[in-house]
């Protein structure tokens, strides 16, 4: 069985790259000043009420997501506001990857959660094909039509029917860096991959490894590959590989892996070398970059805007100690890869539909935006809700781009290939990190796993 997105049109890629680069360049200085049109940052003490919700006194709901730590805590604040407005009781259920397997167990046991937040487009398609998902009701659809661009609505639809609300988005083409480590080393912010490697050399020569890689979580490695591939091979090839219309043994994949090997193959560039990177989980990859003043475990860490949540667990301040630049251009243009989490109802209940309506409104997103480490694709969200200029700039560029973006490639794939720990793309790229010289062997494993997952 081949699992892929439905109704996805070819997007213009350059627009988001340009606007994203401008936004990040503007906010990289950390001057603390917002746009004159922006009210003070940080949100209001009284949450907005732009949508009416039904009274659900006595109703109990369960919401499942793979979020943990601060991300889970911040989302719980959103659920508390929903409880306050409706009288319902909502319990957060921690899920495990792959979430399709987790939900399948729950459904088989007759106890599915009312709502699940799915981190992959393929997971939404699987939920619909397995007949777990419920179509959106009219109230939630009205919020989508009012607050979302067509591209984000299309991502939440399968076979022309709207099932999901993209509550959370991500710009997954960002490099966060320790400002003190850069200053001590005399390192420059790079614009191209060649410059990036030069910066890495400068940092390593100063005694600080260049990059902290969370290789214990295979999804971070898929994001590294996707950014290199999109910039180097271009959007048309990216779309073909995402749909498995070209094989992973294609020369373009080998070229991207060799480019990535110019970083992964340098033990001195990685915090702890290759073995240390493979033992480092994503949260630690961030916190160790912003701990230790000008002598951290590494000077840079790659990942999306959600990195801010983990930086907040350190003493570093975003905008001064922690700065950000766009993923460097490997080809003609820098890449912009987006991701997101889509909320879907798994029970035909009034409460589940009410929660989806709330999540599709700006009210819910503004609560979590104020906590940091969160970006919403909801164009009605007040930018003043974001806590600093960097996150406000990232959100502004996302909304300004409209439908012009490329979605995370592994999240479009069947979960068996693109979303399962210890298997498929996650495992193959972990093997590649351990031995970056084995390009052909990794390509062969990727193609074998992809062909099996896509059913051909």
Question: Can you tell me the number of structural domains?
Answer: 2
Mean pLDDT across all amino acids: 90
Strand content: 5-15%
CATH class of the largest domain: Alpha Beta
How would you describe this protein?
The protein has 456 residues and is α/β, with parallel strands linked by helices. It folds into two domains: 49-171 and 341-407, Periplasmic binding protein-like II (D-Maltodextrin-Binding Protein, domain 2); 174-326, Periplasmic binding protein-like II (D-Maltodextrin-Binding Protein, domain 2). It is built from 21 helices and twelve strands. The strands form three sheets. Strands 1, 2, 3, 6, 11 and 12 form a six-stranded mixed beta sheet that branches. The protein has a four-stranded mixed beta sheet with strand order 8-9-7-10. It has a two-stranded antiparallel sheet with strand order 4-5.
SSE blueprint:
Elements: H1 14-27, E1 60-65, H2 69-86, E2 89-94, H3 99-108, E3 115-118, H4 121-129, H5 138-147, H6 150-155, E4 157-158, E5 161-162, E6 164-171, E7 174-178, H7 179-185, H8 193-205, E8 211-212, H9 218-233, H10 235-242, H11 251-264, H12 273-278, H13 282-287, E9 300-302, H14 307-311, E10 322-326, E11 337-345, H15 350-359, H16 362-369, H17 389-401, E12 406-407, H18 409-412, H19 415-418, H20 424-434, H21 439-454
Parallel strand pairs: 1-2, 1-3, 8-9, 11-12
Antiparallel strand pairs: 3-11, 4-5, 6-11, 7-9, 7-10
Helix pairs in contact: 1-17, 2-16, 5-15, 9-10, 9-11, 9-20, 20-21
Pfam family, one: SBP_bac_8
Region (Disordered): 30-49
Organism: Streptomyces antimicrobicus
């Amino acid at each position: 069985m081949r699992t892929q997105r439905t109704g996805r049109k070819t997007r213009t890629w350059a627009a988001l790259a340009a606007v994203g680069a401008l936004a990040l360049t503007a906010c990289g200085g950390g001057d603390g000043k917002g746009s004159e049109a922006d009210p003070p940052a940080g949100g209001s003490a009284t949450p907005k009420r732009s949508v009416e919700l039904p009274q659900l006194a006595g109703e109990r709901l369960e919401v499942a997501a793979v979020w943990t730590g601060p991300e889970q805590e911040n989302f719980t604040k959103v659920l508390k506001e929903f409880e306050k407005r409706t009288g319902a009781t909502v319990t957060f259920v921690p899920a495990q990857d792959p979430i399709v397997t987790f939900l399948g167990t729950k459904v088989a046991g007759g106890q599915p959660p009312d709502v699940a937040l799915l981190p992959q487009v393929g997971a939404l398609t699987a939920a619909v094909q397995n007949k777990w998902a419920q179509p959106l009701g009219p109230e939630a659809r009205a919020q989508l039509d009012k607050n979302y661009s067509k591209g984000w609505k299309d991502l939440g639809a399968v076979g022309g029917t709207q099932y999901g609300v993209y509550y959370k988005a991500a710009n997954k083409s960002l490099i966060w860096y320790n400002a003190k480590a850069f200053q001590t080393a005399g390192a420059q912010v790079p614009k191209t991959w060649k410059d990036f490697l030069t910066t890495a050399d400068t940092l390593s020569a100063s005694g600080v490894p260049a990059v902290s890689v969370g290789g214990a979580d295979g999804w971070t490695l898929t994001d590294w590959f996707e950014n290199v591939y999109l910039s180097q091979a271009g959007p048309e090839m990216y779309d073909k590989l995402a749909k498995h219309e070209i094989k992973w043994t294609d020369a373009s994949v080998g070229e991207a892996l060799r480019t990535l090997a110019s970083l992964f193959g340098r033990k001195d560039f990685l915090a702890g070398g290759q073995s240390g990177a493979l033992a480092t989980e994503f949260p630690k990859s961030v916190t160790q970059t912003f701990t230790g003043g000008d002598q951290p475990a590494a000077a840079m860490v790659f990942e999306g805007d959600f990195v801010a949540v983990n930086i907040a667990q350190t003493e570093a301040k975003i905008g001064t100690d922690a700065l950000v630049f766009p993923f460097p251009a490997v080809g003609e243009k820098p890449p912009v890869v987006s991701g997101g989490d889509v909320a879907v109802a798994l029970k035909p209940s009034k409460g589940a539909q009410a929660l989806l309506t709330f999540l599709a409104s700006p009210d819910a997103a503004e609560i979590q935006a104020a906590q940091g480490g969160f970006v919403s694709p909801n164009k009605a969200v007040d930018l003043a809700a974001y806590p600093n200029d960097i996150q406000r700039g990232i959100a502004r560029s996302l909304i300004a781009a409209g439908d012009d973006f490329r979605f995370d490639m592994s999240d479009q794939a069947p979960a068996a290939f693109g979303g399962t720990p210890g298997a498929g793309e996650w495992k193959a790229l972990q093997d590649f990190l351990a031995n970056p010289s084995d390009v052909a062997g990794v390509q062969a494993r990727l193609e074998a796993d992809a062909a099996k997952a896509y059913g051909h």
